[in-house]
């Protein structure tokens, strides 16, 4: 029979532009969130995290924004580079477990 | 630091065969996690250990799946008997702290194909 898989949203950006990847999380009681990057054939790699008592955190070229009112998380990547092409996952800590979202594909056009 | 080491990287087997996946966590990490990734269901937590003791195995799909951690530097995930629907990439991850307080360090995964 026909298999139905996850249809990951895809974001295509031009090299040098800023990227914004969005994530809606499930549980209002989640207290910790992480963004991971997964390149083809590799395991997820930590990018940045944020606790629920914060609404913004900045790293090197990346910023995470947290809006608890609408249970929304975003990852902003400044000056996107070809090496940023990957699948990006948000994860929430709920029930002492990290629960991953479905992921977003980021494609960087040169 | 060698990171989390998984083996085999690729395994192709026939339905009904036993499959054993192996993981060496990062030295000093007290937590070890097994995840499964498929196109259908994304990344799912199967089981995690703290100090070699299984803490939560509620994600293990059924009795055909079992995981052990005989010591701090080694864990196995076993599927017996394997079925085609078990085809997936299985990731092991370790962490020095609980997942609520720190990042997980993932291995490169074991891609399993059951024919």
Question: Topology, pairings included?
Answer:
The complex is a heterodimer of chains A (110) and B (115).
Chain A: E1 10-14, E2 19-24, E3 32-38, E4 45-51, E5 56-58, E6 62-67, E7 72-77, E8 86-94, E9 97-100, E10 104-109
Parallel strand pairs in A: 1-10
Antiparallel strand pairs in A: 2-7, 3-4, 3-8, 5-6, 6-7, 8-9, 8-10
Chain B: E1 5-7, E2 10-13, E3 19-24, E4 31-38, E5 42-50, E6 53-56, E7 65-71, E8 74-79, E9 88-95, E10 105-106, E11 110-114
Parallel strand pairs in B: 2-11
Antiparallel strand pairs in B: 1-3, 3-8, 4-5, 4-9, 5-6, 7-8, 9-10, 9-11
Describe the protein.
The complex is a heterodimer of chains A (110) and B (115). Chain A has 110 residues and is an all-beta fold. Chain A has no helices and ten strands. In chain A, strands 1, 3, 4, 8, 9 and 10 form a six-stranded mixed beta sheet that branches. A four-stranded antiparallel beta sheet of chain A has the order 2-7-6-5, with no helix packed on it. Chain B starts with a strand and ends with a strand. The model of chain B has no long low-confidence stretch (mean pLDDT 94). Chain B is built from no helices and eleven strands. Chain B has 115 residues and is mainly β. Classes of the chains: A mainly beta (110), B mainly beta (115). At the A-B interface, strand 4 and strand 9 of A face strand 5 and strand 10 of B.
């Amino acid at each position: 029979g026909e298999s139905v898989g996850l249809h990951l949203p895809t974001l295509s950006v031009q090299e040098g532009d800023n990227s914004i990847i969005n994530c809606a999380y499930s549980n209002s009681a989640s207290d910790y969130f992480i963004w991971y990057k997964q390149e083809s054939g590799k395991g997820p790699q930590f990018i940045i995290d944020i606790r629920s008592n914060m609404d913004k955190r900045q790293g090197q070229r990346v910023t995470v924004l947290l809006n608890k009112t609408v249970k929304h998380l975003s990852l902003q990547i400044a000056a996107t580079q070809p090496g940023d092409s990957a699948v990006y996952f948000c994860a929430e800590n709920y029930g002492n477990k990290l629960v991953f979202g479905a992921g977003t594909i980021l494609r960087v056009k040169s | 630091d060698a990171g989390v080491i998984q083996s085999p990287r690729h395994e192709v087997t026939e339905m009904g065969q036993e499959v054993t996946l192996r993981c060496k966590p990062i030295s000093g990490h007290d937590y070890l996690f097994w995840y499964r990734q498929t196109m259908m269901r994304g990344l799912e937590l199967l089981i995690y250990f703290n100090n070699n003791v299984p803490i939560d195995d509620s994600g293990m799909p059924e009795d055909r799946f079992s995981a052990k951690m005989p010591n701090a530097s080694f864990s196995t995930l076993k599927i017996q008997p394997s079925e085609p629907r078990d085809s997936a990439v299985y990731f092991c991850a370790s962490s020095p702290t609980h997942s609520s307080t720190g990042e997980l360090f993932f291995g490169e995964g074991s891609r399993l194909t059951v024919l």
